[in-house]
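Weekly structure sync, notes
Attendees: PL, DS, HV (note-taker this week)

Item 1: Isoleucine--tRNA ligase, cytoplasmic
DS walked through the input record. Source organism listed as Oesophagostomum dentatum. Sequence as pasted into the shared doc:
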Amino acid sequence: LAVDRPRFTFFDGPPFATGLPHYGHILAGTIKEYEVDKTLGIKGPNDILEMGIGKYNAECRSIVMRYSHEWETTVARMGRWIDFRNDYKTLYPWFMESVWWAFSELFKKGLVYRGVKVMPYSTSCSTPLSNFEAGQNYKDVVDPAVCIGFRLDENPNRMMVAWTTTPWTLPSNLALCVHPDLDYVVVKAEVTDFAGLYVKDADKQICKNLKERGLLIKQGEVKHSYPFCWRSDTPLLYKAVPSWFIRVEQIVPNLLANNEQTYWVPSFVKEKRFANWLRDARDWAVSRNRFWGTPINLWVSDDLEEVVCPGSIAELEQLTGTKITDLHRESVDHLTIPSKTGRGVLKRVTEVFDCWFESGSMPYAQNHYPFENKKSFEDNFPADFIGEGIDQTRGWFYTLLVLSTALFNKPPFKNLICNGLVLASDGNKMSKRKKNYPDPMEIVQKYGADALRLYLINSPVVRGENLRFREEGVRDLLKDVFLPWFNAYRFFVQNVQLYEHVSCHFPFLLTT
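Item 1 (cont.): predicted structure, written out as tokens:
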């Protein structure tokens, strides 16, 4: 606004390509719901492969741009100014190139590795998730609680008793662990009876089978907290999955030190919730078995012994001898790099990045750093301010800090305002599927944007507490605050105009 004034920088995290925002999105400025699969009738990866990755990604791009326009309209109606003409989107090739640069830098520092770990796995999305993604959506659910008898090989008349809430895992059990000093005992090596059944659907049939065989000792139900996929809202499974990881555990001391350099409102979120999360941080699984997103820039040999990580479009063009204009899967999956160790050709791994890696890269990727705007970025980083919901302590706040620490060893922001969650009136999470909240734009049309904004900003939600959204609260605020203000203003204007008409001494220019 003024050349000589100090520059104030804040970050707006990229909203995901989803439906229109609800009140939590309006408050926090983000959207988190994905509906490409619903639009295209996609039920699994094979449907996408049959359609073609290029066609699928073209439809994804179309939906992103359509919701981009609707998002702009919603933001403008809420009275928030954003320069959409100079925006960034994570699908822009120049943004993706900066993401590649960031990952390449981590690779050079030895912070990237491939491993096989027990990971939370989304059956709906057919991909493993990171531990912090799994932590975002725990629910209290009722599951079977059964005690199973395992006959001992050396004495078939005796059984070891095991308790589980996941009967679907029993047919694939290979062993029963009874003591760290004893060998595993193989129970069954192969399963055919329940092949093809979805794991949760198999629970009842497996329990019935165990009962018929005299192995079911006790059966009941238990209510417990269980993680669900934050995208599809389906229960996660824990299974050994090969993934690409970032060594977060190695930089935990630096994460804690950089966190201490930041100022949070409310402070307890920083000192308790976030700091505790950082102390227990685990290596970050950044690979996803998806089709739409920034492809992981790793080319590997068949034996995985030779790995190349190009950090720019120019470097990939030099390695492949191919002109490149886009970085999505349909544009790079077919490219190969000649091996330097006699292993034939290197092929790109099939995974794409965790979307949180992309959003965590936005401070520099929005500037196409380090390829452009290098001084502008370095002069304005860290940001003076960011603000999001308390759930981002395990999301955007976390990934911003991890990547900023790993790349620059400094915090990504100086100040942070952390709001609570806007819940439905019944205290549950707002859900389009459940339709448990009124349409935000209908509320705006009915009561006005100012009434909704003041209702939200004047509630405990801005102090990190949760808010149960009530339409009556917006209506009462309009009735008790805005209408008295407006009526007082009208009274003032009418009397001034009357005074002006009678005396003509004070020519005020007032309008209603």
